[in-house]
Design a protein that fits this description.
Largest sheet: 2 strands, antiparallel
Strand content: under 5%
Low-confidence stretches: 22-50, 56-60
Order of helices and strands: HHHHHHEEHHH
Shape: globular
Structural class: mainly alpha
Radius of gyration: 26 Å
Distance between the termini: 80 Å
Strand order of the largest sheet: 1-2
Number of strands: 2
Number of helices: 9
Amino acid sequence: MINKWSFYTSLTIIISFLSSGFKPSDLDTDEWFLVNDSDATHYLFPSQKQNDYTDSSVPYTGKFFIGYKEAIAFKESQGKYKKVNSLGYLGKYQFGKETLKTVGIHDSRQFLNSPRMQEKAFVALLSKNKSELKNIIEKYEGKIVAGIQITESGILAAAHLGGVGSVKKFFRYKGSRYFKDAYGTSIRSYMRDFGGYETSGIVADSNATVMM
């Protein structure tokens, strides 16, 4: 009788112990998954650290600024920080050496090996281009030119590809003449494909440089 009682008691204890291992200890969602603020940099990242994604070749989507810069980066280099193309353009956003100098960067090797510097250079160039194209943006934003809905983000993307002068020429000739790079990519396509993104947070600054 005692042996039977001991057997059932032991069995009950074992079952209770095993069952407890399958109960979730905490049903609250981890902090990284639920964010309370509206910062666009969070809405697609499971991690709040963008550096966790430096090796990713998948473009991020969305119309926030994070989606804008990652879409351009994917088009330029598939998002690869150490990419150097056949014409010598460098990094994730494919900067030319002369363009780098305009934002205060003179060491191309350091630039190529610094994701942080590349991100800052991209924003600095946007700021410079926005300043130089301020009148163009104010005049044409929201209008249709050569079949394209003109937006600030599209204009800035076109300037990243072909420079400010090429963008001004595009509007001077109402879209009938436009720049193509050595690989056949046109500023017209950039103006179309990267239109409608959020770039209002970019401050127009003709003296923008990279401060590390």
